[in-house]
């Protein structure tokens, strides 16, 4: 697969000045800056200041207790100034993609959160680990299983912690689903249906539609949520997958997959059907069990989520999922608490993604999986 350099990405897809201007009108620092921090708070540097960093992670880091926004890495000078003014980031904690490796000498930064296009996840996660920093890599972990292995090996060699940006494992609705399954609240799970999709109608030049940057389409972007939902709704990894691909707008989705469906089989006899798309609005999980059912709808958005079961409603107070996720990872480092989304989970999902693509390429054949308990937390 063709790789695009960070410099080329900035040249062709950078919209830094516009994003910075939009950010300047956001009152986050004033509205959220009074959240009480723990005396042990780890510094996070965000690598890549696109929409997710701007509108989700940066606001969440004004609310976290065990970590805080300490630094940024960007290729856009206008963003450097805007973020420095907005969040009080000192100049010595601001990096670009050329001098990034010197972050190794900065004790104010403990964690590097890689929030770049998918094809750049491996490079910057490895560089962060080699700089001695703990790593959060946004999902998907990489664009191949081989790259996942490289990230895991780099973190192990450097003795740093690795997490994947699977925010849902830290939020209460998903945790409740996992409890239902673990405790057998509704008996054995028989069938799961999961959908994770949105309709893309915007800029046809966006990086998610460019395979060299994204590594794939809906499956790598939204599909990992559907895969994850099927797994935590059964508590097990699938033993086989069969998949299909559809496209109704080939003039828009020229390089990447538009809509994919897949069927999982589990050793228990349970089956799951997943759907993911960049051309359909869908966001749901439902599991049918021997003694009832449970459902989240919406299931994977930024929230608030909603849930119900055959016994009644599920209701939790909404909090920023990203806040919960980053605090959980900080506590994993500080206190040895469970890593809710370890690198092995990201690797497992890429094994399944590659099997789905293989099934499609081989005329919808059934692909066996031998995952054991990889990534089950």
Mean pLDDT: 93
Strand order of the largest sheet: 14-13-12-11-7-10-9-8-15
CATH superfamily of the largest domain: Dihydrodipicolinate Reductase, domain 2
Number of structural units classed as domains:
2
Main sheet: strands, sense, barrel: 9 strands, mixed
Total beta strands: 15
- Identify the CATH architecture of the largest domain: 2-Layer Sandwich
CATH fold name of the largest domain, please?
Dihydrodipicolinate Reductase, domain 2
Specify the structural class. alpha/beta
Percentage of β-strand residues: 15-25%
Q: What Rg is obtained from the alpha carbons, in whole angstroms?
A: 20 Å
Distance between the termini: 32 Å
**CATH top level assignment of the largest domain:** Alpha Beta
Shape: globular
Low-confidence stretches: 12-34
State the order of secondary-structure elements, H for helix, E for strand: HHHEHEHEEHEHEHEHHEEEEEEEHHE
């Amino acid at each position: 697969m063709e790789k695009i350099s960070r410099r080329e990405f900035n040249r062709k897809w950078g919209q830094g000045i516009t994003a910075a201007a939009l950010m300047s009108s956001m009152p986050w620092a004033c509205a959220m800056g009074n959240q009480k921090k723990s005396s042990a708070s780890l510094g996070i540097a965000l690598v890549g200041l696109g929409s997710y960093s701007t509108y989700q992670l940066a606001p969440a880091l004004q609310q976290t207790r065990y970590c805080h926004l300490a630094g940024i890495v960007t290729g856009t000078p206008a963003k450097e100034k805007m973020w420095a003014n907005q969040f009080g980031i000192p100049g010595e904690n601001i990096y670009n993609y050329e001098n990034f490796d010197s972050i190794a000498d900065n004790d104010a930064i403990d964690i590097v959160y890689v929030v770049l296009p998918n094809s750049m996840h491996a490079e910057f996660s490895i560089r962060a680990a080699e700089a001695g920093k703990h790593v959060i890599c946004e999902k998907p972990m990489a664009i191949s299983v081989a790259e996942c292995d490289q990230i895991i090996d780099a973190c192990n060699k450097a003795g740093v912690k690795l997490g994947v940006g699977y925010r849902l494992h830290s939020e209460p609705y998903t945790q409740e689903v996992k409890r239902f399954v673990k405790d057998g609240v509704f008996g054995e799970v028989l069938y799961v249906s999961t959908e994770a999709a949105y309709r893309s109608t915007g800029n046809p030049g966006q990086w998610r539609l460019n395979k060299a940057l994204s590594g794939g389409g809906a499956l790598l972007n939204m599909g990992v949520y559907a895969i994850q939902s099927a797994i935590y709704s059964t508590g097990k990894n699938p033993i086989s997958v069969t998949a299909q691909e559809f496209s109704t707008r080939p003039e828009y989705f020229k390089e990447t997959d538009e809509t994919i469906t897949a069927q999982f089989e589990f050793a228990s006899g349970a089956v799951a059907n997943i759907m993911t798309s960049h051309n359909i609005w869908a966001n749901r999980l439902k599991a049918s069990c021997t003694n009832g059912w449970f459902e989240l709808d919406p299931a994977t958005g930024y929230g608030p989520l909603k849930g119900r079961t055959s016994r009644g409603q599920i209701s939790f107070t909404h909090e920023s999922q990203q806040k919960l996720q980053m605090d959980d990872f900080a506590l994993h480092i500080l206190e040895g608490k469970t890593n809710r989304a370890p690198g092995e989970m990201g690797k497992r999902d890429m094994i399944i993604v590659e099997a789905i693509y293989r099934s499609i390429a081989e005329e919808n054949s059934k692909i066996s999986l031998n995952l054991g308990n990889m990534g089950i937390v």
